[in-house]
Amino acid sequence: MPRSKKKLLLETAKELFGEYGYVETTFKKISERAGVALGLLTHHYGNKEKLFLAAGLDVLEHFLARLRETAGEAPSGFEAVMRFCEAYLDFSVDKNSNWLVLVRCSPYSDMKTKKDRDIMDSLFEQVYRDLESHLERGVKDGSLRKLDAEVTAQVIVSLMVGANRTRVLTPYALPSLYGEVLDFVAKAVRA
Question: Fewer CB within 10 Å, N or C, the chain?
């Protein structure tokens, strides 16, 4: 089934926002790459800020779905935490995930308005809350040591963000960085 022109425009916008960022991505570039009339972009998305938010939300929704799917069926809290972390890191290097849109569209980077930042922030918060629930589960089922789930979720997500930025955005990441990060998390939380 062919993609709708609206979906094609969103997919193309995600590619370009990921490659060039907000400032360098124009409606003209998007419409030319998609092979769709420029007027349709305005018709479907209004302006660049709305399109940027739509692109970021789309990637974030796919990211949350992947995290939940991967960790949801884990037999223990420990396994759920590890699957969550692995899915987080894998998503960031999946060529089809448009991860760089999410990096650029985080509530702390290229978002222009407070309203848009608040929308993104509320969804990013779900990442922490999901991990926190896996940590609480692990403490209850005995697969994780006694820990403060809220603080530990913050630390683990910070570690994921730092590892991701090192691997994706810098030239000096160790080839084994993601594996080392997963080993570190396992040693830190396992009962």
Answer: N
